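JOB MANIFEST
job_type = single_chain_structure
chain_count = 1
residues = 386
[input]
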Amino acid sequence: MNASLDRNDLPLAGVRVIEFTHMVMGPTCGMILADLGAEVIKVEPPGGDKTRKLPGLGIGFFRTFNRNKKSVVLDIHSPEGHAAALELIGACDVLIENFRPGLMASAGLDYAALAPRYPRLIYVSHKGFLPGPYDKRLALDEVVQMMGGLAYMTGLPGRPLRVGSSVNDIMGGMFGAIGVLAALRERDRTGRGQEVQSALFENCVFLCAQHLQQYLMTGEPPPPMSARVSAWSVYDVFTLAEGEQLFIGAVSDKQFVALCDVLGCPGLAQEPQFATNAARVAARGALIPRLAEILKRQRADALTARLEAAGVPYAPIARPEQLVHDPHLKASGGLVPMATDDGGATEVVLLPLLMGGRRPGVRQPLARVGEHTEEVLGRLARSAVP
């Protein structure tokens, strides 16, 4: 795998993006475009993007979602900074923003203000909600997880629980990038840009669309996933010897027979009440305790090798810190080194994407605050000379 391809070898080479973003959603969109070869210029306020200094669970946001970008410092609220921003926007194909509703308009940098001046500009807004009754509300990933059905489906009955990742922010950025790709294609045909909007709430509803459709088809409110009636008889987390846990999913009759063989209880698969998946689902109350009793004597290392050989799906319950040493993630080129803005180094997770045998990767160190201001603004000045 080549994780250090030159930008000119990548699909979006020649596309220039200006990014007015912070936190996760907008930066994710810009990172995807940058990884795919676009020149992404991140505009930071004097002192730098505050995301760089978040503590706690936000400490990794900046390093995770801002690679392969250039950093320019501008005060867009000053006359000089605003004029430079306008000139820089005019030299770009795409503008990305994810600030609170009205902020870009207050600076005269919203799509309505820019489109007459730059009709080829593709303008991507990442917000909490698409236009409608909620569109002036401020939103966070956790807010829309509660509103959009995801926390309900994830938690226990009566105990909604957010997903353990910024899924809507990240996927909202992904949909923003998809919109950019489609808009670039359309501009090739029409010569005109357009506004693209991506939103957290609508993203979350899309994530829960299968459950919404289940209700529309059956008239029955879907229960949380933790209380669901599974479509498969063996689809559970089991506790093994020494307290280790393992998820096992035997979703066909063939896999159930293989599981029983692996566990040394082939007779279990021959019992009439367990003969088919439908029968096993109906008898899960009897089946799962029997399997749990057998599995609690199994050691994970030996059992997983036998399950893999037998073609039975399984998964250890991994923690994020364990993935740093995951052999498949390493071998597939999905975790690679990156020089950081403080002169150190870290490892970063790449896009889950392979294109023609290539893994778009890290091409430059993480930018320091304002590192490319002189380069980018100097280029504008040179291009203005007749």
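[summary]
The longest helix spans residues 167-190.
The radius of gyration is 25 Å.
exit_status = 0
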